[in-house]
Amino acid sequence: MNLNELENNWIKGFEKPVIIAGPCSAESESQMLETAKRLKESDADVSVFRAGIWKPRTKPNGFEGVGVIGLNWLKKVKEEYGFKTATEVANAHHVFAALEADVDVLWIGARSTVNPFTVQEIAQALRGIDKPVLVKNPVNPDLALWIGALERLLGQDVKNLGVIHRGFSTYQKTKYRNIPNWQIALDFKHQFPNIPMFIDPSHICGNRTGLAGVTQEAFNVGYEGAIIESHCNPDEAWSDASQQITPEVLADMINSIQIRKSDISGYEDEMGKHRTLISDLDFQLIELLSQRMKISEKIGTLKKENNIAIFQPERWRIIADYAAQKANESGMSHEFIEKVFKAIHEESIEVQNKIMINK
């Protein structure tokens, strides 16, 4: 069996979109129960209550989770408020403890997904279970690693699978804590449409203000659910306080989200016309880029003959200024136009480099 053959009928047991919510970390029994109570009383339609029991931290001596005692609090949440429960597992010990506590949904975090040894250990500990296991994308933008983690789980007869898109780390500071890099997630979704995909706006944004927008973007492209951090008192949270929201704010956010239809029947003709036009424009873009790179080759030859350095900082400043001007004139996103011009400029440098190297 391969990943494309999985039925993943477990998702049919939930109303869509599937909302998984709860605090980043379990801190106390009272904190867990109050958050669960308010989620239950809210209008957020939360299906699964999540809480981190073990917390992987970047540096030592920080709060690394309460440990096994927190699993008892998760059990109480299930008993008193009827939620299914979910937590992250990062090694075999975590798996055995979570299964003993009858946690309903397990997820593998981004820092674990990036390490095949860790994923293999977790997969072997999970061998043959029928509980849903969700896999977050690895911290770095590597689609093969993400797929490989799922294949390791399937290799251990774990067949109820899903994935969580939580964004990717980057050295460059942006408005996101972890850049979404939507194309990687959509490439995954294209290859494995049968595997449910959840958005994790909390870790993508790293703040409260962008959560609704990122969640809406995900539902616009057909994600099945969202995993969102919600705390009874976010400002006092022991971890990731800035990205957690109250149950009441969560309810307002979820109710403001529009769920898009995946069925385009009745719109095929009109959609087809627009797509034909886009295909034609895409072809023209490729032709223009090809012409541009041929000019870059001539510039590269000229630089080589006259022993001129390829990268000219002043030229890049001119390009960046021009991109900003064109963005303003066209009403398009400055960030998008800058990305396009930067990619073109980097490819131009690569083309000229090849000419410099070849004797």
TrEMBL record:
InterPro entries hit by this protein: Aldolase_TIM, Chorismate_II_sf, Class-I_DAHP_synthase, CM_dom_sf, CM_II_prokaryot, DAHP1/KDSA
Signal sequence range: none
For this protein, what is the EC number? Answer: 5.4.99.5
- This protein's UniProt keywords: Transferase
Q: Where is the Chorismate mutase domain?
A: 265-356
- Tell me which SUPFAM superfamilies the record gives: Aldolase, Chorismate mutase II
> Does this entry carry the keyword Transferase?
yes
**Which Pfam family is an annotated match for this chain, by its short name?**
CM_2
Keyword Transferase: yes or no?
Answer: yes
Q: Which GO terms describe its molecular function?
A: chorismate mutase activity; transferase activity
Gene Ontology biological process terms in this record: chorismate metabolic process
The protein depicted here goes by the name chorismate mutase
Q: What is the lineage of its organism?
A: Bacteria, Pseudomonadati, Bacteroidota, Flavobacteriia, Flavobacteriales
